[in-house]
Design goal:
NT_sf, 9% strand, Beta Polymerase, domain 2, binds adenosine-5'-triphosphate, seven-stranded mixed β-sheet, alpha+beta, 21 helices, transferase, Serum Albumin, Chain A, Domain 1, PolA_pol_head_dom, two-stranded antiparallel sheet, magnesium, binds magnesium ion
Length: 489
């Protein structure tokens, strides 16, 4: 088969594997995501095969293989440095836990195998000759840009509740609509998400939020009501999510994954502490949690600065500059820059007329779509047009669409983003490691045993040097340390 969207080495190796199966008298096809992505002109990252050969027969043909999922008929074949999952045609039954089939039956007909797959666009396969087997209209749905279950949606989501999130994920990543019946089935089965492990939910959520059309997926998630029904705490109602929608309009423009999460949690009005706890409950790795919480801590420090330095106060700008520098030192340059990038995204998402003089702190209005009198029903396909703003969700239509605490509107006199960036850039140093004096030197010069005083003194010197009060010079820092120390006596 002529692959145009797969790396050529991978494509060649895949053709070798498929040919070998055919030469041994078995049926074999490329199947699933690779066919979908090839058809849509999207990069193909992995190529899966489906075959009439039983697992034992597959293993006999290929000397280099790993029985990765033998019970389900999956063997991983290693070929020319690439790996391919080859799975025996199978049907599934008895999904007692709404996740995994209890019984797997190997079958002889590829159409039977395609029937167990989740969506029509994922239920196509293709032979070596490039001819597609597509009994459920996957190619047509690709053209119509539609996610549609194979068979009865309600049943399919009941069998495996993860499919509901896969549905939202594919709609989001591909910017597709969800077929009316599929959406209706999802709404009926949404409580079943409680059966799915948090890690799996998180993995789908990551693909939505970090994908090319996060707004699309977040809008669908808000309207589906899925997440509050999962195992992990999700302390937001549909209306919180709808209100958050207006604030996250710029999310797709953020390149940094951590900033996307930070924007979402900011829009959902989480404190840095709460955000960290939530990310932990959602099983995010520590590095993600601390990066996201760091950005929100800068927000909190800056909000506190604006609250504590009254507008128009003489020397107010210098007081704010020092507060900003203190925040950069406390939370790191990358968190501080992250917050400014995020703030820029928030402001850019505002309608032009709404920018100056906003009454921030006013509640961010927005009832969920379903509660508004003229809003289309959630399963109204019109409401799911990929590029139409979702009703009441993820459309930055409201003028007061900044979160409480965003300074630009509260404080017309407050420094703008370029000013804050120039304050950061003007700092001669950004970390304690760059300070031209060590704790050991201070202890020696001041003839004192190291103790808590030392950390405090280092921080004061760091702040003085970062703010430009004294040069970052060993001799001058030691002099300043002596002065500070004698003032303490
Ligand atoms: P991607 O790799 O981009 O996530 P994919 O479609 O390849 O997309 P996989 O999870 O790799 O997704 O699954 C491969 C194929 O297996 C799918 O295309 C689909 O046919 C089938 N499949 C995967 N998960 C399910 C599921 N939960 N229910 C039914 N079929 C599934
Ligand atoms: Mg795949």
């Amino acid at each position: 088969m002529d692959w145009t969207m797969a790396p050529s080495g991978m494509a060649q190796a895949a053709n070798v594997v498929l040919s070998a199966l055919l030469e041994h008298g078995h049926e074999a096809y490329f199947v699933g995501g690779c066919i979908r992505d090839e058809l849509l002109g999207r990069p193909v990252h992995d190529i899966d095969l489906t075959t009439s050969a039983l697992p034992g027969e597959v293993m006999e043909i290929f000397p280099r293989c790993v029985p990765t999922g033998l019970a389900h008929g999956t063997i991983t074949i290693l070929q020319d440095g690439w790996s391919f999952e080859v799975t025996t045609y199978r049907t599934e039954s008895g999904y007692a836990d709404h996740r995994r089939p209890e019984h797997v039956l190997f079958v002889r007909d590829v159409n039977e195998d395609l029937r167990r797959r989740d969506f029509t666009i994922n239920a196509m396969c293709c032979g070596l000759d490039g001819i597609r087997v597509d009994p459920y209209g996957g190619a047509e749905d690709s053209v119509r840009r539609l996610i549609r279950c194979v068979g009865d949606a309600e049943e399919r989501f009941d069998e495996d509740a993860l499919r509901m999130l896969r549905c939202v994920r594919f709609a989001s990543v591909l910017d597709f609509r969800v077929a009316k019946n599929t959406w209706r089935g999802l709404l009926r089965q949404r409580d079943k998400l409680a059966h799915i492990a948090v890690e799996r939910v998180r993995a789908e959520l990551e693909r939505i939020v970090l994908g090319p059309h996060p707004q699309r997926g977040l809008g669908l998630l808000a309207r589906s009501g899925l997440l509050p029904r999962g195992k992990a705490p999700f302390p937001w109602t549909g209306s919180d999510m709808a209100a958050a929608a207006a604030l996250t309009a710029g999310i797709g423009d953020l390149q940094d994954a951590h900033l996307r999460w930070a924007l979402l949690l900011h829009a959902l009005k989480r404190s840095a502490f709460e955000a960290d706890e939530l990310l932990r409950a959602w099983t995010f790795p520590g590095a993600t949690r601390s990066a996201v919480a760091g950005v929100l801590r800068v927000r909190e420090a800056w909000d506190a600065a604006l609250a504590e330095v009254p507008p128009g106060e003489p020397g107010g700008t210098e007081a704010l500059r020092r507060r900003w520098i203190a925040a950069v030192l406390a939370h790191g340059q990358s968190a501080a820059e992250g917050w400014l990038t995020l703030l820029a995204a928030l402001l850019a998402a505002l309608p032009e007329a709404a920018a100056p003089g906003l009454a921030l702190g006013a509640p961010v209005a927005g009832a969920p779509a379903a509660q508004r009198p003229n809003a289309p029903a959630p399963d109204d396909p019109a409401a799911q047009r990929p590029n139409a703003p979702a009703p009441g969700a993820f459309a930055p239509q409201r003028p007061n669409a900044l979160a409480p605490g965003d300074f630009a509107a509260q404080r017309p006199d407050a420094p703008d983003i370029p000013a804050l960036r120039s304050w950061t850039a003007g700092m001669p140093l950004h970390t304690l490691a760059e300070l031209a004096v060590t704790g050991r030197e201070l202890a020696t010069v001041l003839h004192k045993r190291p103790g808590p005083w030392l950390g405090e003194l280092l921080q004061r010197l760091l702040m003085a040097a970062a703010a430009g009060d004294i040069p970052n010079d060993n001799r001058l820092l030691l002099l300043e340390a002596k002065r500070m120390d004698s003032n303490e006596q």
